[in-house]
Amino acid sequence: MSSGPDARKPLSADACPHLGREYNHFEGPHLQNPYPFFQRLREEAPVTFNPTMGMWLISRYDDIVSVLENPASFSSASSIELGANLTAETREILGPGPLIHASPLNTDPPGHTRLRRYLQKGFLPARIALQEPRIRHIANTLIDGFIHEGRADLVERFAFPLPLQVILGLMGAPVEDMARVKRWTADLFGLCFAQVPPEAQPAMARGVVEFRAWCSRLIEERRQRPQEDVTSDLVHGDEGEDVSTPELISLLAGSLIAAGHESTAAQLTLVVKNLLEQPERWQRLREDRALIPHAVEECMRLEGVVGGLVRTATRDVEVGGVLLPKGSKLLLLHGSGNHDAAHYREPECFELKREGPQHLTFNRGIHFCMGAPLARLELRVALEQLLERIPELRLVPGQDYGYHQELVTLRNVRHLRVEWPVP
After folding, report:
1. What is the pLDDT of residue 11?
2. Separation between Cα atoms, residue 100 and residue 82, nearest integer Å
3. Alpha helices in 95-177 (DSSP H)
4. Is pLDDT of 17 > 80?
């Protein structure tokens, strides 16, 4: 394998392999269907530099896993500068302190260990298992709202509100605030990750301030009157846990409520899309519901919502035969790793009982998604209810799904228009 440009010398666009320069996950064919390009990367330039992003693209499964399982050499902290382009007016509205405090996703041990241990008690298996009847009720109620219409945008009517209602209920937050929380989440993630025009920033910043105040009120209510919910568990944690109130507000807003529904909504949309694009897949599940968990996993491998994650080299280190200097930023292409033929036979094919390693959509190592059991439960129950209530579901032909990737990590579609016969 070629080692690419000399990693010890300053890099320029001319010094980079052509494939690294080509990649653009925000628009064009790499947004719509990146997998043919990922195959070229794995075969021709598995470790290559993209000068536009200033990152090394890591495309093979084994190389991605080696980075994820070595947090001492590849840091998650400050890999992406949050709110890098905020104006002075926006920062004044937001007030002192960081836009959002550290979360388990973007910290290293020992800080990561502290935060993950603190949050993990809200996602104990016994608590998650108890959510199934409620998730099923929410799914059925949402379906009741559009089943008589014969056509719907499943993103708007089902995939987005389902996990948002689930996480709000889990936190003990009022579901009536769902519309406001949806807007606040967009404001928070937009200011954190997106290139927001200066004129749009102040309104979004005021939304973030409102979101913080809403979380603060919920925390105070649970301090005064604990209930059987995750917020109460976090507020009344074990003595000696050193999580400050501003940290708790950030964890509630970002790590739990925002992250707890955005990725699941996006993944649910992609799972249904993949099943309906090949109607025989949907038909197999109609005939045998026991295959649904296998279908969920295979769809997450075929088209996972996590396009990639960023790491920073803490020392000079070799990845895939290429020497990367300390401070190098790496974009781990999880979607490419999930299609690596070195581990998955005929990786572009849909195989319900596939053999091979666990897909990377929920990450790997110390940063494995703690919400994975809840997400899997939501995906399974959602499919069960769609198959039960609308078995003849099909895609509206010729539609534009509206693929978009505003963040480095999250790939989604804006629409999933479906139809079905109405008696």
Report:
1. 38
2. 8
3. 111-120, 125-129, 132-144, 154, 161-171
4. no
Pairing of strands 403-404, 55-58: unpaired
What is the token pair recorded at 380? 């399974």
Q: Residue 115 burial by CB count (10 A; 0-12/13-18/19+): exposed, middle or buried? A: buried
Domain coverage including residue 96: 84-328+368-419
Kindly state the tokens that stand for 299: 């769809």
What is the pTM (predicted TM-score) of this model? 0.91
Of 301, 273, 292, 294, which is closest to residue 362 (Cα–Cα)? Answer: 301
- Dump pLDDT digits (tens) for 193-215: 778 899 999 999 999 999 999 99
**Tokens for 203?**
């309104």
End-to-end CA distance of the chain: 60
Task: Quick: pLDDT tens for 132-175.
Answer: 999 999 999 999 999 999 999 999 999 999 999 999 999 999 99
Q: Please check whether residue 59 lies inside any domain of the structure.
A: no
- Nearest of 278, 317, 417 to residue 73 by alpha carbon: 317
Outline where 225-256 has alpha helix (H). Answer: 230-235, 245-250
Instruction: Name which of 129, 111, 389 is nearest 242 in CA terms.
Output: 111
CATH number reported for the structural domain that contains residue 98 in this entry: 1.10.630.10
Q: Give whole-number Cα distances, 257 to 130, 248, 274, 281, in Å.
A: 19, 12, 26, 32
Q: What is the pLDDT of residues 367-378, one digit of tens each?
A: 899 999 999 999
**Rounded distance, CA 111 to CA 101, Å?**
12
Total domains in the chain come to 1
Residue 132's DSSP bridge partners are none
Residue 258 lies in a domain: yes
